[in-house]
Amino acid sequence: MGKIFFYVVLAVVMVSGLLFAPEHAGLAIHPMDQFVVSSMFGDHVGMFSITNATVWLALAVLSTFALLVLGSSRRAIVPGRAQSVAELTYGFIYKMVEDVAGKDAVKFFPYIMTLFIFILMSNSLALIPMSFSPTSHIAVTAILAALVFITVTVVGFVKNGVGFLGLFWVSSAPLPLRPILAIIEVISYFVRPVSHSIRLAGNIMAGHAVLKVFAGFAGALGLFSFFPIFAITAVYALEVLVAFIQAYVFTILTCVYLKDALHPSH
Amino acid sequence: MASKTTETAHGAAEAAHGGGSAMPQLDFSTFSNQIFWLVVTLVVIYLILSRVALPRIAAVLAERQGTITNDLAAAEDLKAKAVEAEKAYNKALADARAEAQRIAAETRAEIQAGLDEAIAKADAEIAEKTAESEKAIAEIKAGALESVAVVAKDTAAEIVTALGGKADADGVAAAVTEQMKG
């Protein structure tokens, strides 16, 4: 009985909160404001202005430096905590490159490691309250995806010449089907960078927007704000997972594309 | 009316920092800035990784692998040495045992030879003594038989005398000799 009463009150409070949102000063939910790029000094955002995006990119660089350079500075045979994490990250990506893209892809390892560590650091730092998430911006992820796309295409043609086009010619399919499959393959090849970039930006943006929406509810609900706070905790836990998984997904897809470029046979 | 004003104000605020779009991600005026700093970031991270971090971690991992391999090799070496030492020990033990057996056999043979000699000598002595003794016994036997005859004759003569008869020395002797033959 008490439970039903509680839920009814909760529903009434939430619905009224939603209905009277414009008049209610507490419910000012602007979930997208956190993604605004603004200059740290002055109003104008020019190409070389120091913005909040610049600051958080710099923090990503510093975190990378702290983990991989300072963490491994002792060069211990029996590693400490930071060195262990650095070595695990190294081993994780190295093995991924070797297993997914092949042994001859190992020379691209620093490049792929750069992508992984940058995305991982940006995603993780973005989980700090009041932070800015560079990877939620399509401008950033599009450049990352475009770099991968261009690299893979150039490597494909340099390594295999015209043979790289065999990637689109499915020789195991019946002959009449091959031109149709070729069209599909070409389309999917060019869609790759789009899905590659939107997947990352979309995941990060959606998660952070959801957090902000719940945070807005928490501000408006007063006594009953524990419900959105609980939801924030749950979503935050999910976002921690997403931060790592999206970095992993971006990296492993890069490896898969690189494998296609190095060995373009189906 | 009031809500409309708020909306307008909100829209203006968004326009101020969002470039007129609801999504700051689609505010193209910030793209050049973001892309510039992103490229700077990526280049810096790439340089940090390829110049310092990755070679160092690779070196540490290789060094660790080397240390482990060396330790394993050293352990293998020591194990081989231990096996060798055990083999040498066993060989020495077997040698010593064989030597001991040889010495024992030699000694036994020596003792046996001495013993045999002593036994042979003793046998010879015993045989000699036995022959001597037999001879002596034969002599004594002969002597004893003679004595028995004399004693018997004397005794018989005495018994005859004691019974009141007259002892005829020749008759008694003949009778005794006759009896002793029987």
Short description:
Chain A is mainly α and 266 residues long. Chain A has helices at residues 2-19, 52-70, 81-101, 109-125, 138-160, 178-221, 226-262. Chain A is built from seven helices and no strands.
Helix-strand blueprint:
The complex is a heterodimer of chains A (266) and B (182).
Chain A: H1 2-19, H2 52-70, H3 81-101, H4 109-125, H5 138-160, H6 178-221, H7 226-262
Helix pairs in contact in A: 2-4, 3-4, 3-7, 4-7, 5-6, 5-7, 6-7
Chain B: H1 2-18, H2 31-162, H3 169-181
Question: Could you characterize what this model shows?
Answer:
The complex is a heterodimer of chains A (266) and B (182). Chain A is mainly α and 266 residues long. Chain A has two domains: 1-27, no CATH class; 31-37 and 51-262, no CATH class. In chain A, 67% of the residues lie in helices and 0% in strands. Chain A contains seven helices and no strands. In chain A, helix 3 (81-101) packs across helix 7. Chain B has 182 residues and is an all-alpha fold. Chain B has one domain (27-181). Chain B is 89% helix and 0% strand. Chain B contains three helices and no strands. Residues 1-20 of chain B have low confidence and may be disordered. The interface between A and B is large, with 52 and 44 residues.
